[in-house]
Amino acid sequence: MAEATLNSGDHERIAAAIRAAEAETSGEIYCVVARRSDGYFFAAAFAVTLGILLVSLAAAFALEYWWVAVRLPHFVVVQLLAVAAACALLWWLPGLRLWLVPRRLLWRAAHANALRQFLARNVHLTSERTGVLIFVSLAERYAEVVADAGINAKVPQDTWDGIVRDLTTQARDNRLADGFVAAIATVGGLLSRHFPVSTTDVNELDDHLVEI
In whole angstroms, what is the distance from residue 43 CA to residue 46 CA? Predict the structure, then answer.
């Protein structure tokens, strides 16, 4: 999913899908795709430092077993140099960090980003509380549908989970735009069922995909 790309044509398809879905409902749909939801430098550096300490502890026991004398200051200097080199590598190669951070932490950061986007894009400020955010964070291979109270009270969680499952499957197959279009259509159908369009309906959110 991290390699998925969207061109101008994909953006137009997604915008058209949002407009078509919102033509049938008073609800609002907003889409955001993030390259990554956090830098993860400190989490990865902690993991590397812990690994180096464990390896150095094993090395100390091995040296003691083989009767190899190493002065403590030299041993500590080697540890510090190893930590510094590892941190420098993590700084210059951000992609390595994702391999060192637990998946639970990756998903927690992506979920927090989804909630931030929900609030920052004012999806929670629609008049009938019917805003829905469709969010994807590529580096974490994470997707989420964040629905405001008005529509969330009428739709079971399993339905949202199904939309997310289909979206992540298509994103994994490098069909991110298709995944968004399908998710928008499904969300639009749910919104139109519970909140059909009215003659006084006003478009409260921009009808396009935001990349961050």
Answer: 5
